[in-house]
């Protein structure tokens, strides 16, 4: 044990280093200026903070416990010297969602800190959203001591080593810092995981309680930096010539733009126009092609749309870009019933070869799409005209179908005992309001999300974030908090169902605590409507997806000092006025909107694909077996 004098000297040395970094404008700048020595004697906790700082990680979301006190002390000093910023939260799942949104929406790489045991398990559960959507975030958990002196409180009570490390390694990539000197290797692996260009995800650092304060000699110049990787594409022209030939010969081409196409808008548009292809979106890629573009057929898949699913089912050539073939995006593998060939553009080799009869073009989406578009200048686009005309007719049919629901009058609801807005109309009103004020939209899991990605009319990526990878209830409201943490914030609106909101309602407290300016809109149908609808479609009966407990969400939200809580009303005009009132508040606001749920077909947007669940399995699996692609 260190004496008090030695502890004081150690903290003084930390503070001196932090001041040097702040004064120089960064760790590398301090090393170059000579105000920070290359070799230092420090603890693993400070070494980790310095190592992450070299990769640009300076923001920490934390719920401290006995498994993270030493790391917390280091961050206290570095926060005071304005090198790092630490934000305390109230729920580990919500905290993980906030960190995911901070990287996904704002491009900043944060680190999540929890203690050992239950907190770490909650954060691990929340990290599924980052893993499923390819978002790179660091997770730092406390872990059992390395001496094996007996059970540590909150460790997994089993006579086996490295159990938390095994769990985190299953969900992502992880490293147990059993030996402090292994930090450089851990950070090198972590840097590539959270910054991977095609398959990013969470990286888990496990810090045993007793190795956090352990001392080591650290070479600051040898700490791994954030990797700068060049864009890659196939060598030569052979593969591109083969792809161009397939496109030239095909009569009905569909591009399936997956979540990986986000940010590649210009290249996707150029390639689609050059190929004469219909473009079908995934829930996470709305905006890749402007909504009104004549070749944009909207979302396709198990939920899908009339136009999107038509384009998928009837294409003879499918160009899959940035998609991992999620069941709901390709109707459990049977969405392309007429496809004879596939061209697949993806940096991940497994995803690029997911389908049979595939010409794989692995690498960077923009680079490959641009090169392929240049090869298509000589193709006969007139031969594709009949296909695009047929798709346009289906798009018009889809627009008319949506318009019926958007303009539907309020319908008498059995729960609310009065006429209320149908959910598609209510979501459309809020989505239009978000576009009007330039706000980003975050959609939560459930019926709100399922209707939402059919409704939004984005003209660029980055205006909608819908967590369909894990479909994690509570993501949107929790992710909204990222706006209070980001360097350059954007006003955002969280679209939540009543069930999703109640998964992580502490956003109300965390939002006020950290100065969040944003809005939560709760679409309340008093049930799990997405699952109710599935039960009714499959078995004709609903079961245990609702209750009779009334909640006054306006009173609940208004009980938190600093939150503006507003009734959304039961008509379009009342909702519009409520949104204006909520936006005028200089802080976090909540709008509660009762919405209809029941047998009237105008209450939802329906489903247009197939899915390998419930009593649909036999038909879907039989079709899958018979399909060649």
List the topology elements.
Layout: H1 4-24, H2 27-33, E1 39-43, H3 44-54, E2 59-62, H4 69-80, E3 85-88, H5 92-106, E4 111-114, H6 118-126, H7 128-133, E5 138-143, H8 163-171, E6 173-176, H9 183-194, E7 203-208, E8 215-219, H10 238-249, E9 253-257, H11 265-275, E10 278-281, E11 296-299, H12 306-314, E12 317-321, E13 341-345, H13 349-352, E14 358-361, H14 365-375, H15 385-406, E15 411-413, E16 418-420, H16 423-437, E17 440-443, H17 447-455, E18 464-466, H18 475-480, H19 482-485, E19 492-497, H20 498-503, H21 507-513, E20 518-524, H22 529-539, H23 553-558, E21 564-567, H24 572-584, E22 588-594, H25 617-626
Parallel strand pairs: 2-3, 2-4, 4-5, 5-7, 6-7, 9-10, 9-12, 10-11, 12-13, 13-14, 17-18, 17-19, 19-20, 20-22, 21-22
Antiparallel strand pairs: 1-8, 15-16
Helix pairs in contact: 1-2, 5-6, 11-14, 12-15, 16-17, 16-24
Termini separation comes to: 65 Å
State the helicity in percent bands.
40-55%
Beta-strand percent range? 15-25%
User: How many structurally independent domains?
Assistant: 3
Number of strands: 22
Which strand order spans the largest sheet, edge to edge or round the barrel?
Answer: 3-2-4-5-7-6
Radius of gyration: 26 Å
CATH topology of the largest domain: Rossmann fold
How large is the count of helical segments? 25
Tell me what the CATH architecture of the largest domain is.
3-Layer(aba) Sandwich
* Oligomeric form: single chain
Under CATH at level 1, the class of the largest domain stands as: Alpha Beta
Structural class: alpha/beta
Mean pLDDT across all amino acids: 96
Largest sheet: 6 strands, parallel
Could you state the CATH homologous superfamily of the largest domain? Thiamin diphosphate (ThDP)-binding fold, Pyr/PP domains
Low-confidence stretches: none
Large-scale geometry: globular
């Amino acid at each position: 044990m260190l004496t008090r004098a030695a502890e004081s000297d150690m903290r003084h040395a930390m503070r001196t280093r932090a001041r040097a970094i702040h004064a120089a404008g960064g760790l590398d700048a301090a090393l170059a200026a000579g105000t920070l020595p290359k070799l230092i004697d420090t603890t693993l906790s400070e070494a980790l903070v310095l190592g992450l700082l070299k990769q640009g990680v300076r923001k920490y979301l934390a719920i401290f416990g006995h498994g993270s006190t030493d790391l917390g002390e280091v961050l206290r000093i570095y926060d005071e010297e304005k090198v790092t910023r630490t934000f305390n939260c109230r729920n580990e799942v919500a905290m993980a969602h906030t960190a995911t949104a901070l990287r996904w929406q704002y491009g900043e790489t944060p680190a999540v800190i929890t203690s050992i045991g239950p907190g770490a398990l909650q954060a691990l559960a929340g990290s599924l959203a980052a893993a499923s959507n390819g978002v790179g975030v660091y997770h730092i958990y406390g872990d059992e001591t390395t001496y094996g002196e007996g059970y540590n409180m909150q460790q997994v009570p089993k006579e086996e080593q490295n159990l938390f490390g095994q769990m985190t390694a299953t969900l992502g990539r992880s490293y147990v810092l059993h030996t402090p000197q292994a930090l450089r290797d851990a950070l090198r692996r972590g840097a590539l995981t959270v910054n991977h260009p095609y398959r990013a995800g969470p990286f888990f650092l496990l810090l045993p309680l007793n190795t956090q304060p352990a001392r080591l000699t650290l070479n600051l110049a040898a700490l791994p930096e954030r990797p700068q990787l060049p864009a890659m594409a196939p060598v030569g022209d052979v593969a591109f010539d083969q792809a161009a030939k397939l496109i030239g010969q095909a009569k009905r081409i569909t591009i399936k733009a997956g979540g990986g196409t986000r940010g590649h808008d210009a290249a996707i548009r150029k390639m689609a126009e050059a190929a004469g292809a219909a473009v079908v979106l995934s829930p996470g890629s709305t905006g890749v092609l402007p909504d009104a573009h004549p070749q944009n057929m909207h979302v396709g898949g198990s939920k899908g749309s009339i136009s999107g699913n038509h384009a998928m089912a009837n294409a003879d050539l499918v160009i899959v870009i940035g998609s991992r073939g999620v069941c709901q995006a390709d109707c459990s593998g049977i969405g392309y019933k007429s496809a004879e060939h596939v061209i697949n553009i993806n940096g991940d080799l497994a995803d690029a070869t997911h389908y049979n009869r595939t010409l794989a073009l692995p690498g960077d989406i923009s680079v490959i799409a641009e090169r392929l578009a240049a090869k298509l200048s000589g193709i006969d686009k007139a031969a594709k005209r009949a296909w695009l005309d047929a798709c346009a007719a289906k798009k018009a049919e889809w627009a008319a179908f949506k318009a019926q629901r958007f303009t539907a009058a309020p319908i008498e609801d059995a729960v609310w005992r009065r006429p209320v807005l149908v959910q598609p109309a209510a979501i459309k009103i809020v989505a239009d309001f978000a576009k009007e004020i330039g706000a980003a939209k975050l959609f939560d899991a459930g019926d709100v999300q399922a209707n939402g990605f059919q409704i939004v009319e984005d003209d660029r990526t980055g205006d909608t974030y819908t967590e369909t990878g894990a479909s994690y209830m509570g993501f949107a409201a929790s992710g909204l908090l990222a706006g209070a943490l980001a360097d350059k914030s954007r006003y955002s609106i969280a679209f939540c169902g009543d069930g999703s909101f109640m998964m992580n309602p502490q956003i109300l407290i965390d939002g006020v605590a950290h100065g969040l300016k944003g809005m939560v809109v709760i679409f309340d149908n008093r049930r799990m409507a997405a699952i109710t609808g599935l039960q009714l479609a499959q078995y004709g009966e609903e079961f245990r997806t609702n209750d009779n407990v009334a909640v006054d969400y306006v009173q609940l939200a208004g009980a938190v000092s600093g939150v503006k809580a507003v009734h959304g009303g039961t008509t379009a005009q009342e909702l519009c006025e409520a949104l204006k009132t909520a936006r005028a508040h200089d802080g976090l606001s909540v709008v509660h909107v009762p919405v209809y749920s029941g047998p009237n077909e105008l209450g939802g947007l329906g489903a247009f694909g197939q899915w390998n669940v419930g009593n649909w399995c036999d038909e879907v699996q039989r079709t899958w077996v018979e399909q060649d692609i």
